[in-house]
Amino acid sequence: MPQPALEELDLRPGDRYDQFEIIRPLGRGSYARVFAARHPSYPGPIALKLSRVPLTSETTAIRALREIRALQSLHNPHVVQILDHGVGSDERWFMVMELLDGCNLLEHHDFDVPMPPAEALHLIYQACVGVDEAHRQGIVHRDIKPENLWIMAKTGRLKVIDFGLARAWDPSVTVGEQATVGHMLIGTPHYAQPEQVHTGVLTPASDVYSLGIVLYELLTGRVPFFPAETWSRVVLRLAHKPVHWLGAHVKTEPTPIGEHPAALTFSETLRSIVHAMIAKEPGHRPATGAVAARLLASVLLDDYGVSVAARLRIADAETELIVPGSYTIGEQTGTISVRGMGGAAPWGEARVVAKLDWLGPGSDAVLTPIEHGLCRVNGRPVERAVRLVAGSSFELGALTMQLEYPH
Question: Do residues 59 and 91 share a domain?
């Protein structure tokens, strides 16, 4: 006789799920619930994400595995950290994550009110850094929205959460099937991308688009396509009309941001960056989170005096802005070029002589020689990975460089 299907668990404070003691519910989605919990393996409370039903559904299993694989591969401070995962005694999958204090961006800010531009730019810069690590590993988040951007209470740091809709945009990455689903809507209509209708194929530029929409709304208090109404009024009016949202993303040109009173003082550079991020054609947008992050870091520094990126000073050359990530450094005809991992090399057949990795403010970058005999740090030859502490200089061939961290 077949066993009856297990129903969703109604876990309350003090209840137990295997070795987890439930502290309180934190959230509930279509596929899973999240609880604050304790476990003997961890010294403090953790977040327990638990599937609402057992793994009898292939769809649920694929979704669970997709998020677990996505998060396991991400380590920068602007994404939520996964600590463990498994399947419980009743065949529900679970994931153990860091317990985040604070709230999501929708709770943090009244979207009817423009946010100070430096604050808004810094928040979306952090989100770009967070999704870029995923982009470099072939993962697209696909559901960027204010509810999935978490603001930490003590530090104000932003973390991207909920990669449950992530799929590999690069077929070589085994996170899940490529993000091609015809005209089925992926993610949240308010922040959907025009390419969902045209091709159904989502790439890193798709996440950039959604972040650009959020940035526009933070800066203006308005949805880009409905300038006469407040943000909240539009959201309420279109709450159950996904086709209207998709129509706006595909057919309606965004109102030039400079027409909003809050944006009258914005530089032309800032305006152009916002509009590039929300361009209808993916090829007209910054291609990845890193490209968008560098643009935002530059305008933060130039327009508002806010330093968030490191600066790589190269002798007899322009200074390069370095946002958190991985870079290769190549040499050709006596010059040095820096590029993000996985990007197109601007130096053609240049020799790659070193790799540079930086997690962001509060951490030292790591320089790893690729071609031995060419790298020196503070005048001393190095043949293995070395930390670049503040004030360090390093030489690649005949050129000297120094990495200056943001204050």
Answer: yes
Q: Distance (Å, rounded) from C-alpha 79 to C-alpha 152?
A: 11
pLDDT of residue 148: 95
**End-to-end Cα distance, the chain:** 67
Stretch 372-401: mean pLDDT: 90
Query: Cα separation of 245 and 225, whole Å?
Result: 9
Highest mean pLDDT among 165-179, 320-334, 377-391: 377-391
Q: How many Å apart are CA 112 and CA 235, to the nearest integer?
A: 11
Residue type, 402: Q
Are residue 384 and residue 246 in the same domain, yes or no? no
Cα–Cα distances (Å) from 150 to 77, 108, 333, 343, in that order, read 12, 9, 46, 28
Q: CA 360 to CA 129: how far, in whole Å?
A: 9
Shared-domain flag, residues 188 and 317: no
Q: Is 196 exposed, middle or buried (0-12, 13-18, 19+ CB in 10 A)?
A: buried
Say yes or no: 362 and 286 in one domain. Answer: no
Residue ranges making up the domain that contains 85: 16-97
Residue 114 placed within a domain: yes
Q: Are 96 and 83 in contact (CB under 8 A)?
A: yes
Q: Is residue 328 part of a domain?
A: yes
Looking at 97, 120, 153, the residue that finishes a domain is 97
Instruction: Answer for the pair 34, 27: CB distance below 8 angstroms, yes or no.
Output: yes
Domain boundary among 288, 304, 320: 304
Cα–Cα distance, 317 to 296 (Å, whole number): 22
Q: Which two tokens stand for residue 86?
A: 């498994």
pTM: 0.89
What positions carry a catalytic annotation?
Answer: 143
pLDDT tens per residue across span 126-158: 999 999 999 988 889 999 999 999 999 999 999
At 95, list the tokens: 């994931």
pLDDT, tens only, 23-66: 999 988 777 899 999 999 999 999 999 988 887 767 767 777 77
